[in-house]
Amino acid sequence: MLGFVRSLAATSAALFFSAFAYGATGYTQQVAPMPLVDINNRGVILAASGPLAFLWNGKPDGAGGQYTLLSTPGNDPNVVYAGLSDLDEVVGGFTDFGSGRRLGFVSSVSGLELIEVPGAASTTVRAISPNGRYLGVQAYSELGTASSFLLDRNTGLLSDMSPTGSYGSAIEGVTDSGQVVGRMGTDAGLRSFVFQNGHVETFSVGGDAYTFLYGVSDAGYLVGSSGSTPPAPGGPEWNSGFVSHGAETWKFAQGTRILGVNSSGVAVGVYSLYSTHGVLLTPVPEPASVALMLGGLVAVFAWRARRVAPHGG
C-alpha cells in the first residue's frame, strides 16, 4: 500500500490566505485554513486535520506549487500525523482494526513501514530526524504508562530515552545527531526536556509556569508553547507559542502552539483558542544582515560590470 495518494497542481486557492497582525516582531506571520504540523529543510509543509492530510510544496501565495494528498493508514479516522523528514517521510500512529493494536508508521512514496515497540499496548511515532535515520517513539504499557524510545533505523537499535525519575514521557522532536526534545511527568508536574549525549536538561521559557517543547532543528531552534495554564488534552491552547534560538526567544499570540521548525528558523503550528487554523512563521532578516546582503550584491554587480566593460586600446 502506497503512503501517498497523488500530487495535484496548485489551484488559485492558495494554502495561506492572510497575515497575522499580532505576535512577535522579527517574524512575518501567515495563517492557513488547517493546522500545520511540521516543515522540513526543503520548505515542504505537512498539514493535517483528522484523517485529512497533505504535503504542500510551493510558495505561500500558491504560485507554482503542488500538494500531495496522503492516504489514511488503516482507514483510521483517529490517525495522528506527527512529523516530516527531508525525504518527505511522514510519521504518526493509527489503530489497526484487524488486530485492535495502535501502531506507529512511516509513510512515504515507497510504502508504509509499521513501527511497534515489543510488549507495548500501543505505539506512536511522534518525531523523525531530517535525514530519516532516527524516530522518536512513544509507547504505552497495559497499565497506561508512557515511555519514550529512540529508534535508529540504520541499525535497528531501540533505546529507552525516558528520563530517570520521570512519570511518563514523550519525544516531540529529534535531530540528525540524535538529540531529542520532549515532555515528562515529574513530582513538580509536566516539564520539558532536552536529551543529548546521555545528559538530560529541563527547558523553560522565562518565568512561565509551563513550557511544552514540540520541535527542534539541527540549527538549534526550539519551538513549543508556554504560559501559566496547564495542558488540556483535546482542548484549546491558552498559552502562547514561541520560537527559541540561543539567547533569543520570540513569543506569539495567546492560543498559538508552534509544532515544527526547520534549520532556517521557519516554523509552523496551530492557533486553537477561538477558532482553529494553521500558522506559518518566517524570520525577518535583521537590518544588519540585510545591509550585508545588499552590500554583497552591489560588490557582485560591480565585479561583473568590470568584467564586461570594453577595454581601451
Note the topology.
Elements: E1 4-9, E2 18-19, E3 27-32, E4 36-39, E5 45-49, E6 52-57, E7 66-70, E8 80-84, E9 90-96, E10 101-108, E11 111-115, E12 122-128, E13 134-140, E14 146-152, E15 158-160, E16 169-174, E17 180-186, E18 189-196, E19 199-203, E20 210-216, E21 221-227, E22 240-245, E23 248-254, E24 256-261, E25 267-271, E26 277-283, H1 287-308
Antiparallel strand pairs: 1-7, 2-3, 3-26, 4-5, 5-6, 6-7, 8-9, 9-10, 10-11, 12-13, 13-14, 14-15, 16-17, 17-18, 18-19, 20-21, 21-22, 22-23, 24-25, 25-26
In short:
The chain has 313 residues and is mainly beta. Helix content is 7%, strand content 49%. Keywords: Signal.
Give structural notes:
The longest helix has 22 residues, at 287-308. The protein starts with a strand and ends in a 5-residue tail after the last helix. It has one helix spanning 287-308, and strands spanning 4-9, 18-19, 27-32, 36-39, 45-49, 52-57, 66-70, 80-84, 90-96, 101-108, 111-115, 122-128, 134-140, 146-152, 158-160, 169-174, 180-186, 189-196, 199-203, 210-216, 221-227, 240-245, 248-254, 256-261, 267-271, 277-283. It has a single domain, classed as TolB, C-terminal domain (Neuraminidase). The radius of gyration is 21 Å and the shape is globular. Residues 6-13 and 287-305 have low confidence and may be disordered. Strand 9 (90-96) and strand 10 (101-108) form a beta hairpin. By secondary structure, the protein is mostly beta strands.
